[in-house]
Amino acid sequence: MALEDTLRSLREFDVNDINLDNIGTLPVPIKVILALLLFGLVLTGGYYYHIKNLQEQLAKVQGQEATLKQEFEKKAFQVANLDAYRRQMVEMEESFGALISQLPSDTEVPGLLEDITNKGLLNGLEIASIDLRPEVSREFYVELPISIVASGSYHDLGAFISGMAGLPRIVTLHDFVIRAGADNNAPLNMNITAKTYRYKDGDS
What we know:
Elements (H helix, E strand, L loop, with lengths): L1 H11 L15 H53 L1 H20 L7 H14 L3 E7 L3 E2 L3 E12 L1 H11 L6 E9 L8 E12 L5
Helix pairs in contact: 4-5
């Protein structure tokens, strides 16, 4: 009997009759339907205004987690290889010290010029001039160019250039200019710039 009454009330119900004044007198099935609709609206509103925001925050945190994992893996690798890095640092310091020892100090430049002159004479060259140019200051070192003018045979010039590599101090060669003599039997004339270096300490 109650079911028939419920069905009859649903058939006789007019949606236009719903208002806030009579909502308490509506049939029970209508109240249930309205309650379900209201519950659905609350869930939908909660999703868009709260859960969706939480999901965006979660996605952001997950992205940060991936970045942190990569940083952790990188740092873990560095920690695992810390001893190897320390050994490399010691080796680099030793190599750097060895290189620094090859850079002449101001007081050693005359001796270096003498070595260059002797190297040229030993290889049969005639040294016309060896001139110091102004120093060039770099970030970590000071560069001292030395202009050399010499003459000799092709093989003598080659032997001189090769011999420069055997000097106890670091010397690099730049700006080769070799000109032929007045005739085929005349010696070749060579202009070359040798550069030596010294460490730029705090006082330089």
